[in-house]
Amino acid sequence: MSFDSPLNAHELEERMDVYLDPALSSRRTAAGPARELAAFSAREQRFVLHWGAVIARDNAELAYQFTAFAAPALRLMDLDAVESWLLYAMDLYDKKGQMPAIRAFQEVAEFAANMQEKLAGTTLEDAAGVLERFVCGLNGRPLGIAAGERVFTDTETIFLPHVVGRLPDKESNFRLYKAMTVHQWAQNWYGTWRGGVLIEALAGGRLAEVDLALFHALETARLDACLARDLPGLHRDMLALREALDGLSPFWGDIAPELGRPAARVADTLRLVSRMRGVRPPTCCYRGELLPEAVQARWQVRLALEQDRFRIALAQLIEDQDGQPPGTDREEAQTLPETRERLAVNRREDPDMPEGFRYQLFLDGKPIAPPENVESTMESIIQDLGEIPPEYLVAAGPGLYKRGLGGESRDPDSVWSGTYHEEGAFLYDEWDYSRQHHRKGWCVLREHPLAPADLEPYYHTVRKYGGLIKSLRRTFEVLRGEDRILKRQIDGEDVDIDALVEAYGDVHMGLEMSERLFTRLHKDERNIAVMLMVDMSGSTKGWVNEAEREALILLSEALETLGDRFAIYGFSGWTRKRCEAFPVKRFDQPYNEATRRRICAIAPRDYTRMGAPIRHLCRLLKAEEARTKLLITLSDGKPDDYDPQYRGEYGIEDTRQALFEARADGIHPFCITIDEHGADYLPHMYGAANYAVVADISRLPMKVSDIYRKLTS
Amino acid sequence: MQHELRVLRPEEYFIAEEPYYEPVRDEIPVFEAAYRNRLPILLKGPTGCGKTRFMEHMAWRLKRPLITVSCHDDLTSSDLVGRFLIKGGETIWVDGPLARAVRAGGICYLDEIVEARKDTTVVIHPLADDRRVLPMEKVGELLEAPDEFCLAISYNPGYQSVLKDLKQSTRQRFVALEFDYPEAALEQKIVEKESGIDSGQARQLVKFAHMTRNLKGQGLDEGASTRLLVHAAKLIASGIPPVAACRSAVAQALTDDADMLSAVNELSSSLF
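^ Those are the sequences you sent over. The predicted structure of the assembly is below.
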């Protein structure tokens, strides 16, 4: 096909009109773009027409912009680069909307200029994985890595640019990323923000806003001195970067030698600012900025949260010691002042801690070792304040305890009642088959607890299928790990008399004696983790839902006998912003009355956006240690959603892609459906042998256990 | 001169030279007291923190032969107690390491006991309580342990898997000693002593170990153990540059994950 001749302007315009129709008017036609494109080869023309049509499915205006700027783009870049240009613009559209995407299409020249930099540069996407682990290994509170317009830290996350391309090769650019990260980490660890000294100085006017940059330059000298002491290899790297990019030999060490002392603190830097006022701070390639407002916002929330957390932990430690929770007589008390007497901290020198001290917690005069999570809270408090302040040393009362456990702001059900937020939610990619590209962080999935329901449906099922449950248990018992005695082994616990007699005979006949003379006990241990993913979409209303519940109850009873680890999650969704998973039974929960009640609570909800729940459940399944991992979906139809884009091929392809990803992680997906037309699309999604259609709903409960047995034996 | 290899039966193997061991707490007096009272001992702790070295040291101290069995998931009770073998058409009984240790009054150390099959933990039960006998069902005998015999087992509670947990009925027969990586200063001393590198480099190595331990649960199952540090230190002492030594002796031993490997390598190169 690549030998065909290019289309002329008229033909091109005709084809463009087809997909651009909604974006065209009497004043704006496809004639211009078509004329320009006529000068290109057939291959390039096909490329533009193809992608124009793909983009038009999302947004006709963007498709027009793309078509209009395709010709200049093709003059500036090769096809691969043009493709990354348009995918970049479409990602922007996914994340930020139409305007930024249009701008990205229009600024094609700029993109092409940056392209060279991007090719040599390192993207944050590539570097973030290593950087995040690196910074976590360094010490202190774990810091996240995120992309931002400016380079700074809010003391919980380090913000870095999308791309670093100032240096000629990828490796050096990664070094620059690392230097930026380490500088921001050093602010956290060596106490630029500790004790709120800097923020107070700014608020009280001791440090003027205009001097912040000067302060930062001086503080950088102090932090660099700390790094030189503790991480000499890194410091060398950072010096080399400064030499290459800022053209400076080691700076300011002479002007401010006091900042190089190990005892120098942020207060010393503040004092120096007045002496140095008027000096122009030199540039520094990794310094970034200080954003006190961003820090303050985080700081206050965290301080309050960790104080509560610490006090609650103290209450728990007292409970462990006394055998009963303290302060049960005062339901509303926030703190229990009488516990002050019993608690103390003792500090001990440790040069590896930021302020040179480590703290040991005492209860009733005896040192106690707090659990790991409390330890990290303590460390975080010390990192913020430099100590465990005396007022923290009081156990939480029941009032605080209750509030602490509530965690209102993270309640998944309240998301839609107030302002929308994505805190505490899981973000999952979605596969766009027309772009052949993942939409990053496209689906927002939350786990919602199911309110336990009445047990009546459970009893009903047990009565209805009493006999079947018994026989299921029997069939499943057979499958359980059994000991088998293997005969004629080279090595084993016992002598195999039959083999020995035969071998003895052989020897007397002058033959060679067999080595296989022992019996060995062989244990077949089942090591299976199975995730049951239950469709809770609106279409399951009535019969289907009832059959699903019955099937789950029967299967759960059988699995209990078998001893396989299993989890049950319901799923439903309403557009990409509202994918929902309902934990009925997690892997670590027992199958007990509470679980049965939750099975009874399975009820129809909204739509079937399947990709995100599959990705979520696979993530959970992946964390289980098992030789065989199964993901079994109980469903009643095709993937579907309220938003028309997901319907049809898009949804099927996304689901298929999610299942591909699952298989790559060693998970076997299987689908049980009651959709009679399932055979039309399930082989495509799950593979030819990985689905079963149960046409008769009433037989679903029996069939499911049957299928499971076949699947795992 | 050709060096003559010594071939010994395990129950005759006495440790002649003092194995280097730095006590962290009171583990030596506790072990000795338990030994005198004929109590079995359970060593808990992560891999490479010195459990096996401690056993060697104690065997030397108490002047008893040490028989170590590294348990694996196919280890059965006959592997410990003994079995019939066939020789020239006749069956003969051969003692397993546990029975040998009992007969010789030695110290039997079952390393990573949870790895063994469940039935093996049961055969040690009668040995581990006040009966102190080893039933040998297949020959129909009971082997009574002399006072000098000592049973020790080890186990790593770090594996958070239900399958690898020690049964209550087993663990409640033992005196437990908890091991962990030693404190920074002590660990530095151990690394120096074992390898002969200078204190500055040892200090950086210990710091590096702490960094990897920060990553436990964030993608690493375990941080670098003292054993790995000693390996790295020995490489450094033989002239390998520190960053390369850390890469080969520590990073590659900890993980196969590419991102994690680069992160760990970045950490070591920032220290040296």
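Confidence is low (pLDDT under 50) at residues 405-410 of chain A. Residues 295-406 of chain A form one domain.

Shout if you want it in another format.
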